[in-house]
Fold this sequence. Notes:
The protein has eleven helices and six strands. The protein has helices at residues 17-30, 42-50, 70-80, 95-103, 116-127, 135-142, 146-151, 157-167, 172-179, 183-197, 202-211; strands at residues 8-13, 33-39, 58-61, 85-90, 108-111, 132-133. A six-stranded parallel beta sheet has the order 2-1-3-4-5-6, with helices on both faces. The longest helix has 15 residues, at 183-197. It is elongated. It starts with 7 loop residues before the first strand and ends with a helix.
Amino acid sequence: xxxxxxxxxxxxxxxxxxxxxxxxxxxxxxxxxxxxxxxxxxxxxxxxxxxxxxxxxxxxxxxxxxxxxxxxxxxxxxxxxxxxxxxxxxxxxxxxxxxxxxxxxxxxxxxxxxxxxxxxxxxxxxxxxxxxxxxxxxxxxxxxxxxxxxxxxxxxxxxxxxxxxxxxxxxxxxxxxxxxxxxxxxxxxxxxxxxxxxxxxxxxxxxxxxxxxxx
Length: 215
């Protein structure tokens, strides 16, 4: 953990000079900067990192670079210098990219349309050992992923009702009586639920429904 009142050495890896220039102005204005390094190619930074004893406190890393994927570069940076914090800094707001960056050791992710105050907040949080995201990314992370959504089977209103009653421990005869339906109809709904959730028994059905936050 690094106190943000210390003098910071920050590297910016981005192939757009105007982006780097804008970032430098913000960083110098709002943080105690000792040095800002700029790189247009990921390979150049890796070469530097392998041949220096100087500590780089934080890297602002674009995801799309001419020579290497930012995701792969993040992994290499963390392998060489575990104490260097990495923040993804990109136009891309794809959830899978964010998750890949985190899996490779990044401390967070900021979209380039974030405000200067958001960026500084994220940098300070990263330097203090937190996982951090700009507001747009926070909203994307909070939503269920596409794979999660695909795993939720489409249920009719009646099936949802019966699923809840099953989780409440009610028997088929009790459900038939309460809903004024035939026992055959209730059993048909139960079979349909089992098929949709690919559950072999009631316990697995309830477990799957709980995992998907349906009950």
